[in-house]
Amino acid sequence: MKTIAFIGLGKIGQTITYASLIDGIFDQAILYDIIPELPEKFEHELRHAFATKGVNTDLISSNRLDDVTGADIVVITAGKPRKAGMSRRDLFADNAKIMYDLAKKLPPKNPGAIYLMVTNPVDMMASIFSKFSKEYVISAGDQVETMRMRSYLAKKYKIPVTEVNGFVGGEHGEDAVVLWSTVSIKGNPVEESVHQEVENYVKQIPGEIIRVMGGTTWGPGTIIADIVRSIALNENRVMSIAIPREFEGEVIHVSIPVVVGRTIGPSIEQLLDEKDRWYLMAAMKDFHSTYRELIKTSMIDQLS
Amino acid sequence: MKTIAFIGLGKIGQTITYASLIDGIFDQAILYDIIPELPEKFEHELRHAFATKGVNTDLISSNRLDDVTGADIVVITAGKPRKAGMSRRDLFADNAKIMYDLAKKLPPKNPGAIYLMVTNPVDMMASIFSKFSKEYVISAGDQVETMRMRSYLAKKYKIPVTEVNGFVGGEHGEDAVVLWSTVSIKGNPVEESVHQEVENYVKQIPGEIIRVMGGTTWGPGTIIADIVRSIALNENRVMSIAIPREFEGEVIHVSIPVVVGRTIGPSIEQLLDEKDRWYLMAAMKDFHSTYRELIKTSMIDQLS
Amino acid sequence: MKTIAFIGLGKIGQTITYASLIDGIFDQAILYDIIPELPEKFEHELRHAFATKGVNTDLISSNRLDDVTGADIVVITAGKPRKAGMSRRDLFADNAKIMYDLAKKLPPKNPGAIYLMVTNPVDMMASIFSKFSKEYVISAGDQVETMRMRSYLAKKYKIPVTEVNGFVGGEHGEDAVVLWSTVSIKGNPVEESVHQEVENYVKQIPGEIIRVMGGTTWGPGTIIADIVRSIALNENRVMSIAIPREFEGEVIHVSIPVVVGRTIGPSIEQLLDEKDRWYLMAAMKDFHSTYRELIKTSMIDQLS
Amino acid sequence: MKTIAFIGLGKIGQTITYASLIDGIFDQAILYDIIPELPEKFEHELRHAFATKGVNTDLISSNRLDDVTGADIVVITAGKPRKAGMSRRDLFADNAKIMYDLAKKLPPKNPGAIYLMVTNPVDMMASIFSKFSKEYVISAGDQVETMRMRSYLAKKYKIPVTEVNGFVGGEHGEDAVVLWSTVSIKGNPVEESVHQEVENYVKQIPGEIIRVMGGTTWGPGTIIADIVRSIALNENRVMSIAIPREFEGEVIHVSIPVVVGRTIGPSIEQLLDEKDRWYLMAAMKDFHSTYRELIKTSMIDQLS
Fold first, then answer.
1. What domains can you pick out in chain C, each with its CATH number?
2. To which protein family does this belong (chains A, B, C, D) (predicted)?
3. Which residues of chain D make contact with C201, given a CB cutoff of 8 A?
């Protein structure tokens, strides 16, 4: 993995870019945004940061999608951001059109690339991009929720976060489910009486952060950059992201713990307990029906 | 160095905090800002980031300055930010009052701490804080300009930035001077015909970035976090920061390449050529007279 | 994970210790070896290295096993080393007695520790230690072979090693099998005509290195330190190590790709293709019968 | 800095190589030793280590000095090692001949390279290499002693080593002097009553380690790799190494704290106190007279 492209350089896009590049693991990075001068000025900022860190990654910045060529990984954050009070699904229609456009333009110049979707609603945008591009697309999915869950338990029990393991899966956002069969503290399961507050935290904390800070950046930015890193360095970390899967003839994206390296998969869904698998299946059905409906009502189908 | 405190959690404060903490080199960090809920919500963001990185640094967040205790390093970004078109000196009066307040409240609870000033006008705020606290204060000074200078030369000559060495000194901002006797590309001096455009870049690029992006964050944030790192890990890197020095009976801050480790200094001013030393002396005189005047006109003297 | 202990400070033990500690991820490390003065002198060497790196991990060195207390992870390399021409199994009898001793003495003072076995024959020593201690023991297993396999393919095809994925499993050493259903180059399977030479390399390269260099250290040391890191930082990397499993009433150790974090497992055996699973089953049977026989002939059974 | 060459792959050479390369900061590394198969087998070991770390540095190994081409930095450890009881100067004659040979063969194929001497007696070998090659040569000098001094004080006072600053200078080995005017603990000077035991430690610990472990590797290997890193990443750390200086018409090497980046220097000798400067001057005189004498008695002069 030598070249990475970032499509979208808003707050979250900038944070992912920074966190992905600052350790110098790529030979080249391409910075794209539609806003005039933004990629170029952001390039300057990164160059200044690289100077103190001794990072020699080549940087290319552009407002032209045509300049995004030869990427091994493409990280997509382009689209409207989720604002306070807005549901992730509200964004569907507008951002789906942007994905359609990207799905047509990016693949011809970036053969063999892995696409990492971050634009919300993230799983559906991954499916939409997949639908129109036929490329391999993953969604950042619930890896952010996964880390929020671990972080909450660590703080609650005043232990290092490295003592907490486990995953959140299903849909990203309000319908994410903690996969309790995977969760442990110092190797022991978490008592059921605590489940509800953990689930509440995972659902409510992004809204809380957005209300005060205007958006979530440092958490998701770092976590998603670690997905990038695990692919680029072939670390094979297990992360709760959404990989493409067939469901009633449609490619859909629902988060499941999955091995993330130069190749992505297998998922370890089969190794979860029955209850957690049931939740994942329910999430898939729910995703699928909502997805079908949203495609219809927003007339995205007619784009192709 | 075990505990670090961050006073001010605006854009630049957040970026410095993130870049200082993400490698897990501190045992504890204290996050302070005057804005309600901001420290606490930023703490959540950092915890999420720490979860993926396996960082176990303890975090404390507060709106009360009283909770800032036992810090070994205190990074100050609190104050009004520099807006597009505004001179760094325009900020003097307002931010000096904030420094007066911090200088009275922080030292009693943080004995032996090193203070790193980032609030603009950065050198003067360092001097003001020093004046009222009698503590050891350094200013981030021209280390940011230093990296911008190297970055420009690297891009111009299409070489890795690690091939460019040298420093910018004097006052931070519009009056910073490239210390040409220290500058080299692959070990060779830079031809004089290029000097002007380099100096222009260093002066103009922050304004350009602010115009498009609303502020400079990634560059300064990373560079200033490397000052923190060099102190905390005792790396003894030579950096162009401003350390306190007596000048006509007053402690003032002007940037000079200086050894930055657990102890700070000596500066290598004596080892510069005559021309560069002349510029630094001129910068000190200029700083001193402006500083005296600003103190008078803003009636800061009457605070003590 | 705050404290790590290293039992055995020979060449490989030193290399694992160094590579595990040099990034400063532990609070404390305990260095044990039976050779007088060796732990203490090695401690000095590490302290000198820590000084330049800014690492503040506490070090304790001792010739007394009693001083090994409170460890979260215990890495065991103690025992006779494998010499040129010697089979790993030749070592069984002598090293099993050492394991019996350690299994009796270490657990009482290190409650809840994870034991990582490196002493050869590594899988059998893990089983022996497990048998006598009833503690949770993993064997470094085939993670070293896994990296050798990837490294060979990368060199052969002149591509970055990060482009090669896949695992070696089964028994450590001569009987290790490449799990071809997991192996890929830039995402594509490896043609069968190449399989034999890869398998030969994995089997023969350690002997080649030992013949010229006297032992293998840098490869295994770094790879095993990454197992330690994945546990300590809860990275959840998938690695081919041997975790305890019941087989005909006996706990045995055979390498399978498994998730390695603060909790270890699940293995992804069920997700392999039929052929690879058949090989793993055969390895287990083979391991079991050899193990039973060696225990009998070396009269290890009579120790308990 | 893209390519590094290692001349000599004994114990210390291997450790420096490993520690210099494992973070992936070079594009290419050339491994040379005179022992048949050693470079090639060591290359395999490094490749296995790189696989787990995701390092993609190109490796070239050879027994032919002719294959060492295009290096930006050349690290020389070739020569006879210092054995227990042997003075560093005993090695002079034999290793000087090796340096003569390298000085004739390496420069033509490695234009512009910086040579970092590690072979003992290290300062004299640097001067010899400089004499015959006219290239820019630095000696690892007293940076190892510097770290040993800091490490001793940290252990004695039970404080983190990052709280201790200061340097050892002069000749490498028995005649090294602690530059007390630079030494501090938490920013305060060290009481004189402690000086003697610190000096004793610095002088005696390498012999102690060699007696028990057969050689010093982890300490010097890591410390010297950090010299390499500071050059390659242009970190500008101040380190106590020996840079070439004219003394009575001869280029000699005596350790002084010096800025180590893409350019090396200035030294901060002028900033030391009078006592420390006197010691350094004495060391230079001593070095010079011994050096002249050794050159004569070993008839090295007649080589050119």
1. 3-139 (3.40.50.720), 142-300 (3.90.110.10)
2. Belongs to the LDH/MDH superfamily.
3. none
Which chain A positions have a beta carbon within 8 Å of C187's beta carbon? 112, 262-263
**pLDDT digits 0-9 by tens, B187-226:** 999 999 999 999 999 999 999 999 999 999 999 999 999 9
The angle, 0 to 180 degrees and rounded to 10, between the axes of the packed helices D274-297 and D122-133 is 60
C79 vs D172: CA distance, rounded Å: 38
Q: Phi/psi of residue C179, each to 5°?
A: -85, 85
Contact B138, B252 (CB under 8 A): no
Confidence of residue B74 (pLDDT cuts 50, 70, 90): very high
Q: Which of A160, A164, A271 sits opposite C270 (nearest CB)?
A: A271
Give the closest residue to D15 by CA, choosing from C30, B236, C11: C11
Radius of gyration of chain A (CA): 19
Question: Residues 53..92 of B with a Cβ closer than 8 Å to A: which?
Answer: 53-56
Q: Residues in chain C with pLDDT < 70?
A: 1, 82-89, 304
Tokens read off for C211: 């013949």
Rounded Cα distance, B232 and D160, in Å: 11
Residues B112 and B72: beta-carbon distance below 8 Å: yes
Interface pTM (ipTM) of the complex? Answer: 0.96
Token pair, residue C107, equals 């657990």
Tokens 């490869």 belong to residue: C219
State whether C54 and B232 contact (CB < 8 Å). yes
What tens digit of pLDDT does each residue of D27-86 get? Answer: 999 999 999 999 999 999 999 999 999 999 999 999 999 999 999 999 999 998 766 666
- Going by C-beta distance under 8 Å and a sequence separation of 6 or more, which residues neighbour residue B111? none
Q: Are C170 and C252 in contact (CB under 8 A)?
A: no
Grade residue A85 by pLDDT with cuts at 50, 70 and 90.
Answer: low
Q: In the 3-class helix/strand/coil scheme, how is chain A assigned residue by residue?
A: CCEEEEECCCHHHHHHHHHHHCCCCCCEEEEECCCCCHHHHHHHHHHHHHHHHCCCCEEEEECCHHHCCCCCEEEECCCCCCCCCCCHHHHHHHHHHHHHHHHHHHHHHCCCCEEEECCCCHHHHHHHHHHHHCCCEEECCCHHHHHHHHHHHHHHCCCCHHHEEEEEEECCCCCEEEEEEEEEECCECCCHHHHHHHHHHHHHHHHHHHHHHCCCCHHHHHHHHHHHHHHHCCCCEEEEEEEEEEECCEEEEEEEEEEECCCEEEECHHHCCHHHHHHHHHHHHHHHHHHHHHHHHCCHHHHC
**How many angstroms separate the CA atoms of A209 and C261, rounded?**
29
